[in-house]
Amino acid sequence: MTTSTDFTPEVMNVMTDELEDSGLTPQDPRGRRRRRKTRAKASADTSDRGILSPSDWHRPGIRWGTRITHVVLLLVLIVVGLGPLLWLAKSAITPTQDTLRTPMALFPNGVDWANLSTAWSTVHIDVQFMNTIWVALGSWIMQIVVATTAGYALSVLRPKYGKVIYGLVLGTLFVPSVVLLVPLYLTILNPPLLGTSLINTFWAVWLPAGASAFNVVLIKRFFDNLPREVFEAARTDGAGPFRLFWSIVLPMSKPILGVVSVFAIIAAWKDYLWPLLVLRDPAIQPLSVRLPTLQAAIQLDVYLAALAISTLIPIVLFLIFQGLFLRSAGLGGAVKG
């Protein structure tokens, strides 16, 4: 319960002034109601305070110093974060001689748009680009299906030995991925029950991608925070496990699904070692494997243009899903008071 001692003298003065301006006294019931509203407003104002108090913010020296600090930090962040991408975009349409002679100059001898078309058609980056999309799309589907179903079973259904299974999943996070390369490769080479090797097929990349313990733990922890009252209400209305999963849990989990989707696609987009081992045919290799082998065979400007093309999908994904990183999941309104 909030008492008068919880407020500063300035807040108490504001409360008293508001009562006097309205012609009410503290003993009047209407005055008490007005005072409670003022207290609630003051509590909200104090809860929203940042590092600087309102009185400090009104000082010109502190206010301008804070703004200058914000601008400097923002400029440093832009240079560090966007600098390499902007340089790559500039070098992709700059002749090789200009890039080697003056790498930081802005188009000293004009723009060469032919680098992009050469990298796309002549070097056949278009084939590797589509291969990368298929690899990333299949890996994303496998990770979403496995992570959501496993997280749903461990968090919502809660089987008898769920804690033991969850402990085993957590334990796999402490196993280095390099240790699993040999047994995983032998499994893909001679998979049980299939009788045929998965080498040089996209399944050799898709199936291991689904075994992501990190995504299972991440989604399971998110499902733990979902309101149980919604689940009980759905069960009361006759919803079964599948209906509960498809119609209730997944629509409430859009933020975490977006985050996991970005992680999954970017991880598949930049993965190099495992596709190098299982995708030996150049016709099905992704960009992460094919581009390093082309570096010595093509001009620098064409190679930089190919690198710029390979960064398009991650940038587009970030622009699409950035809201899921920046906004919080408003789940409180799902439960009616």
Automatic annotation (TrEMBL):
The chain crosses the membrane at residues 68-89, 133-157, 164-186, 198-223, 244-269, 302-326. Gene3D superfamilies: MetI-like (1.10.3720.10). Residues 129-321 form the ABC transmembrane type-1 domain. It is a multi-pass membrane protein. InterPro entries: MetI-like, MetI-like_sf. GO terms for biological process: transmembrane transport. One of its GO terms (cellular component) is plasma membrane. Its main location: membrane. Signal peptide: none annotated. Residues 1-52 are annotated as: Disordered. Belongs to the binding-protein-dependent transport system permease family. This is ABC transporter permease. It comes from Leifsonia poae.
